[in-house]
User: Which sequence fits this backbone?
């Protein structure tokens, strides 16, 4: 039986690009951590209230050759086919994947990660790697929370607890002298002109002297 060489591959799934896989993966680094408080925690408390799982991080080092090399592809399509070179097309696809800011999935040799973002992308070229793309990528998992909208029934309109009376427009008001009625009533009672007989004798006040008229109507000018 002949020797068979198995090449580890990583698939990029979803995002705004078609699914594709790199020619080979040189290294994978998987990091999963939890965050715990720095201050002391009381004995007997539930630790899940103080510690939480941090987003997963993934580092990969992979390569894409300028020569088509896709063993095991069911359809044989080359996602990096280009009029220039496969390495240039692969690097351009990675840059566009990062610039979309859309989460995607990545299938590694250990597990499938969902909601990943390409945080950093680095590539070096020298004389030994001029005919291909050798790159390093740092990926981080994004925590996505779902929200629910609750609609409350409309509130009934009512009067406030303290509501003042409506304003009433009484028109233009004129000030009166409070002393005038008192002076007129006292003078008329003394002279007897407040009786029907007195008003008939005086002719409604026409025969009164100027002094009495001034007392009856304060502020009015005496007629000549």
Assistant:
């Amino acid at each position: 039986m002949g020797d068979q060489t198995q090449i580890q591959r990583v698939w990029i799934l979803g995002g705004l690009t078609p699914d594709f896989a790199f020619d080979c993966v040189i290294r994978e680094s998987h990091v999963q951590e939890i965050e715990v408080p720095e201050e002391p925690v009381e004995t007997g408390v539930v630790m899940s209230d103080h510690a939480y799982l941090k987003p997963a991080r993934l580092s990969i080092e992979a390569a894409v050759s300028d020569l088509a090399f896709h063993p095991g592809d069911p359809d044989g399509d080359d996602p990096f086919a280009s009029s220039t070179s496969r390495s240039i097309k692969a690097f351009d696809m990675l840059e566009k994947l990062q610039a979309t800011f859309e989460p995607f999935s990545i299938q590694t040799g250990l597990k499938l990660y969902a909601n990943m973002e390409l945080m950093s992308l680095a590539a070096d070229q020298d004389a030994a790697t001029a005919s291909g793309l050798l790159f390093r990528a740092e990926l981080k998992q994004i925590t996505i929370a779902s929200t629910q909208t609750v609609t409350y029934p409309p509130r009934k309109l009512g009067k406030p607890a303290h509501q003042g009376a409506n304003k009433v427009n009484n028109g233009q008001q004129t000030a009166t002298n409070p002393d005038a009625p008192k002076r007129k009533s006292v003078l008329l009672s003394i002279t007897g002109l407040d009786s029907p007989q007195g008003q008939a004798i005086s002719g409604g006040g026409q025969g009164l002297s100027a002094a009495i008229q001034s007392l009856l109507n304060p502020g009015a000018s005496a007629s000549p």
User: Anything to note?
Assistant: The helical segments are 86-99, 179-191, 196-202, 210-216. Strands lie at 11-14, 20-21, 24-31, 34-35, 52-53, 57-65, 104-107, 112-123, 132-141.
